[in-house]
Design goal:
2 domains, 3-stranded mixed β-sheet, 23 helices, about 550 residues
Length: about 550
């Protein structure tokens, strides 16, 4: 680890911005594991949204007046400035008025923050009780913002509203998340137990109220058009990549990449079933008892063992893995919404990095051949190495750079890059595991095509009209060999969260292009280990910032 760096004026501006975020949105403090008001929520109303925009404008003025002391400062200024400027563009476009999707909007995030709250002490449960009692205010503020969207004619698609309502309905049932969560407080005083029960009831009622609003008010006013259009999509794309790309060229590249992944997968399939198809190879793998896990307990145990092995072996051979991040906790999420995701360690490592699997309703069997690459994606050398290493590097990086900076394209692009790297290192030599990696890569390529095709109004690949939901679902089923509940959830995700899904494969493309350019410049002196170390030492940054910082 490098010698501690003396904090600069720019570092202080970045630290002040983190403090502002944790003040305006106390869940940010919980997410990154720093002191804060862990029993509260921020203001989700239009007033609260405007307060954050005002704070961003003030921080931009301070950054513009600051003088960078070194290269670390220059990266901070470049990345924080571009982030805040884009945040304000998104704000001025009114996208907060239609901020609703099945995976990452206040409708789900208000509940999900409880997954990260510690439960070891009575003080922890006191924070939980306070925050549960505050859910109603957060939901009401959010509804107020969506109502403003209705008044101004800025609404999400009706299809997305109804899909989200199904999720919030489950949370709003009397036997939903909050009562179950509160019942886990085994050793607390009677007064606190009463607060937890009351908070659980109020939070549950708030989610039932949100569900009613979505169905009775927002859905009738919502847009019948699923596509967001080129102008809005370009904003989302820049936000998720931290880079500007040619959307039409990327669509055509996505079609080519999908064909390449499909051909590679078909070749591997023929080694599993001689002369067979991808489907017949999948059937053979799915019928192999040695590759099937039964139940979430077995899934969790398998994920943990695979992760532990990867950390132990790679730390001796290909990566420098700091002691603080030698452990990834593999978790089954307390929800059944679909999706697999990573949450980084707390800033003081009191909470480790975690891989979460939100198993959809009805899914009870899991194929290891499909998911080996997923563990590498979420763990080491994927997200856990990338994000955890940034947290370790506190001697050089301010809290913004360690915990909050970056983009989906940087993070998810690296994780896909890591998947392919594990194949190159021999960890996917088993034909089934390699087929699983290629299946995941094919799916990521397919959603580049789907996402851009839908939201830019591209012609269908078969030439029969424009992309719509039914065509997109059929296309994704053809290219994604997952259980149908997961497939349906994924397609709803792409329709409601434009630009995010392509950031994985496009981010991988930009990471690989950067590596290849560094290799070209270095010639015989190129060392891949050094490239990884230099790139990850920057922490999370937008991909344009990454390229400038690495290439100079």
């Amino acid at each position: 680890m490098s010698e501690a760096r003396t904090p600069t004026v720019v570092d202080q501006i970045a630290e002040d911005w983190v403090s502002t975020l944790t003040r305006l949105d106390p869940t940010t403090a919980t997410y990154i594991g720093v002191p804060g008001r862990h029993g509260e929520f921020g203001d989700y109303s239009p007033h609260g949204v405007e307060a954050r925009a005002d704070a961003a404008r003030d921080t931009l003025r301070r950054l513009a007046a600051a003088t960078s002391a070194d290269e670390v400062d220059r990266v901070t200024v470049a990345d924080l400035t571009s982030t805040l400027e884009l945040d304000l563009e998104v704000h001025e476009a009114g996208l907060h008025l239609r901020d609703l999707n099945v995976l990452a909007s206040p409708a789900t995030e208000i509940r999900e923050i409880f997954d990260l709250m510690p439960t070891e002490t009575e003080s922890d449960w006191s924070d939980i009780a306070s925050r549960m009692n505050a859910v109603a205010g957060a939901i009401d503020g959010y509804i107020e913002t969506l109502r403003q969207g209705i008044a101004e004619g800025v609404t999400p698609a009706r299809r997305q509203v109804l899909a989200v309502a199904e999720l919030t309905e489950r949370v709003g049932r009397p036997d939903g998340f909050f009562p179950r969560f509160a019942s886990g407080a085994a050793e607390v005083g009677d007064a606190l137990r009463g607060d937890l029960i009351t908070g659980a009831v109020l939070a549950t009622e708030a989610y039932a109220r949100l569900t009613a609003f979505l169905r009775s008010e927002l859905a009738p006013a919502a847009s019948e058009t699923d596509a967001v259009g080129r102008e809005v999509y370009a904003l989302h794309s820049r936000r998720f990549l931290g880079a500007t790309i040619d959307l039409d060229e990327t669509y055509e590249w996505g079609i080519e990449e999908l064909a390449r992944m499909t051909a590679e997968q078909e070749a591997v399939a023929r080694t599993i079933v001689p002369g067979g198809t991808v489907e017949s190879a999948i059937a053979a793998l799915d019928s192999d008892p040695a590759r099937i896990l039964h139940g979430t307990a077995a899934l969790q145990e398998w994920m943990q063992a695979l992760s532990d092995r990867a950390v132990e072996e790679l730390s001796r051979t290909h990566f420098e893995i700091p002691q603080q991040i030698r452990r990834l906790e593999c978790m089954i999420a307390p929800t059944q919404d679909g999706g697999i995701y990573y949450t980084g360690p707390a800033d003081d490592f009191s909470r480790p990095g975690r891989m979460w699997w939100s198993v959809p309703v009805g899914v009870t069997e899991f194929s290891t051949w499909r998911e080996t690459t997923t563990v590498y994606h979420e763990g080491v050398p994927g997200h856990h190495l990338q994000i955890g290493q940034a947290v370790v590097n506190r001697s050089e990086l301010n809290t913004w750079r360690r915990q909050l900076a970056g983009s989906s394209g940087h993070a998810e692009g690296w994780a896909l890059y890591a998947e392919r790297l594990m194949g190159e290192l021999g960890y996917l030599d088993d034909a089934g595991d390699r087929l699983g990696m290629l299946d995941a890569q094919r799916m990521r390529a397919a959603r580049v095509v789907l996402d851009l095709g839908v939201h830019l109004g591209k012609p269908r690949l078969d030439g029969t009209g424009q992309w719509d939901f039914d065509y997109a679902l059929a296309f994704f089923r053809e290219n994604c060999h997952e259980p149908d509940p997961s497939t349906l959830f994924e397609v709803h995700r792409y329709f409601g969260w434009p630009g995010q899904a392509p950031s994985y494969k496009v981010g991988q493309r930009l990471w690989e292009e950067l590596r290849d350019e560094v290799r070209r410049r270095a010639g015989a002196d190129f060392e891949i280990r050094d490239f990884h170390r230099r790139a990850l030492a920057l922490g999370g940054v937008g991909l344009d910032t990454l390229r400038t910082a690495v290439l100079g």
